[in-house]
């Protein structure tokens, strides 16, 4: 099972000095913030530029601008990704020849045997030249806390989703979207996992469910994850709630505090034109960008 096309992970993204300064400032932002909105899942988000609603995957106006202490990260994203080209290959296996370790297909309850360390996109620049994030969400993940599998809203959140990781490494799960994904996405509350118990209560599935095929990929400290194409529009991503992860070598690692910086390019009047209508809110009329 190959990783989703359009997924890129760049390790050691900032210099050691830049990274140390950014991590210190992120920790200070949580310590000094007077508006920390804890969520049901145990994460704490801080929004800048535009507010991102973790319950609905929608957006709203926000008076807190993106802080200037993120300038090094934003500048490095522009310099390191906008002009980088990846060699094209018609062979899918060769296209991912820079994978450092084997993949493993996991059932929902199985621990990963092996994980993927480094993927790059192919035949395109990693980011469009006009990519300029106007929405940033910093989240604190205490040990054991995760995020339910989801696809970021198509219309208002742009073609590329970026996530920069700080502190503890964590394994992110990727799964190809299916009919269950579609059924859960377009409920009033879009978070996939939070809907599952409500939707399945008192119902019988007429079709036997197959074991879920899940890719687990480590997001290391100081790595930048870019989701575009299928990885952005047609695969779910999430972090399972648990206290440990397995390294590519099979060692058990205890999770510690983790922080992530998610960067998006928001268009309140966006109309998605992707090639994946089954999971597109524009085609399913599931998101009203004018709502508060």
Automatic annotation (TrEMBL):
PROSITE patterns in the record: FE2OG_OXY
Entry-linked SUPFAM superfamilies: Clavaminate synthase-like (SSF51197)
One GO biological process term: demethylation
Domain of life: Eukaryota
Single GO MF annotation: demethylase activity
Residue ranges of every copy of the Fe2OG dioxygenase domain listed in the record: 132-267
Gene3D superfamilies found in the cross-reference section: Alpha-ketoglutarate-dependent dioxygenase AlkB-like
PANTHER family (UniProt xref): 2-OXOGLUTARATE AND FE-DEPENDENT OXYGENASE FAMILY PROTEIN, OXYGENASE-RELATED
Protein name: Fe2OG dioxygenase domain-containing protein
Organism classification: Eukaryota, Fungi, Dikarya, Ascomycota, Pezizomycotina
């Amino acid at each position: 099972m190959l990783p989703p096309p359009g997924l890129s992970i760049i390790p050691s993204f900032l210099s050691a000095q830049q990274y140390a300064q950014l991590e210190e400032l992120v920790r200070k932002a949580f310590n000094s913030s007077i508006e920390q909105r804890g969520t049901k899942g145990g994460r704490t988000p801080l929004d800048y530029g535009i507010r991102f609603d973790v319950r609905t995957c929608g957006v709203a106006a926000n008076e807190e601008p993106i802080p200037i202490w993120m300038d090094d990260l934003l500048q490095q994203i522009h310099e390191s990704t906008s002009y980088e080209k990846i060699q094209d290959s018609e062979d899918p296996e060769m296209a991912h020849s820079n994978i450092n370790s084997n993949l493993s297909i996991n059932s929902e309850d199985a621990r990963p045997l092996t994980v993927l360390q480094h993927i790059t996109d192919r035949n395109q620049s990693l980011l469009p030249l006009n990519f300029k994030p106007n929405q940033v969400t910093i989240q604190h993940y205490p040990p054991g806390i995760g995020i339910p599998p989801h696809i970021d809203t198509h219309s208002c959140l742009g073609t590329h989703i970026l996530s920069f990781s700080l502190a503890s490494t964590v394994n992110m799960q990727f799964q190809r979207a299916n009919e269950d994904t579609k059924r859960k996405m377009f409920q009033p509350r879009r978070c996939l996992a939070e809907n599952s118990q409500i939707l399945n209560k008192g119902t019988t599935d007429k079709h036997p469910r197959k074991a879920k095929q899940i890719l687990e990929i480590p997001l290391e400290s100081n790595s930048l994850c870019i989701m575009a194409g299928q990885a952005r529009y047609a695969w779910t991503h999430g972090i399972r709630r648990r206290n440990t992860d397995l390294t590519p070598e099979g060692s058990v690692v205890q999770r510690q505090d983790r922080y992530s910086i998610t960067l998006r390019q928001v268009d309140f009047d966006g109309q998605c034109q992707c090639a994946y209508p089954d999971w597109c809110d524009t085609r399913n009329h599931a998101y009203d960008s004018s709502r508060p």
